[in-house]
Design goal:
Length: 209
């Protein structure tokens, strides 16, 4: 488990945040978001075990997020019932961490949370359309579904590019700041070493007293 997942297990969240998530978990899902109606008993048991240490209020919000925006992934995971259980557990753990990330965004960066839910929606719609194309034997229906799938993929790609560009810019700002600090330290090398030397020597003298 990552540090963020451990924070969920430890219940290290503010009371206002818990109340907000509890409230949101009782609200109906967004109109454009689907929700898986039922999980197999196999997956329910594995999911229950994976989040059994999570605070009940947080657990409700986490389950809501999983079933609202990760239902396609849960469907696929359900099909691994007779496959490698260890692999299934790893996949489920990753989904839980992603859902936890999104809930953290909901509290700290609402606009980014909105963008991520939109990205998840395009992802889910694309997966559903692809499955419908594979199942249909009607050529005309297949072409219509393919056209919708292309639009969904284009929307997903464009939004992903937008998010990546913003991340590149943010990393660029951080890199420039790091360069500035590096250059400043380089210019003050001797002074900083001498100051640190005095600090250490004085501390040793204090300890001797």
């Amino acid at each position: 488990m990552t540090e963020r997942t451990d924070r969920w297990k430890a219940g290290a969240w503010t009371v206002p945040a818990l109340l907000l998530w509890a409230f949101l978990s009782l609200r109906p899902a967004p109109a454009d978001a689907k929700q898986k109606q039922a999980l197999s008993s196999w997956l329910q048991g594995m999911l229950k075990h994976a989040i059994e240490e999570v605070d009940p209020l947080e657990r409700a919000a986490l389950l809501r997020e999983l079933q609202t925006y990760f239902y396609v992934d849960l469907d696929r995971l359900d099909r691994l019932e007779h496959g490698d259980r260890e692999e299934a557990e790893d996949i489920l753990e990753e989904l839980i961490e992603q859902a936890a990330d999104m809930l953290e965004l909901k509290e700290e960066e609402p606009e980014r949370y909105r963008e991520m839910t939109e990205l998840r929606r395009y992802y889910s719609v694309s997966a559903e359309l692809a499955e419908a194309i594979r199942k249909t034997n009607d050529q005309g229906e297949s072409e219509k579904l393919t056209a919708r799938l292309r639009k969904s993929l284009e929307a997903y790609f464009d939004l992903k590019q937008k998010l990546m560009l913003r991340e590149i810019r943010e990393i660029g700002y951080e890199l420039e700041e790091l360069k500035r600090i590096y250059q400043k330290r380089k210019e003050k090398r001797n002074r900083m070493i001498e100051r640190r030397l005095r600090e250490l020597v004085e501390e040793e003298e204090d300890l001797e007293w």
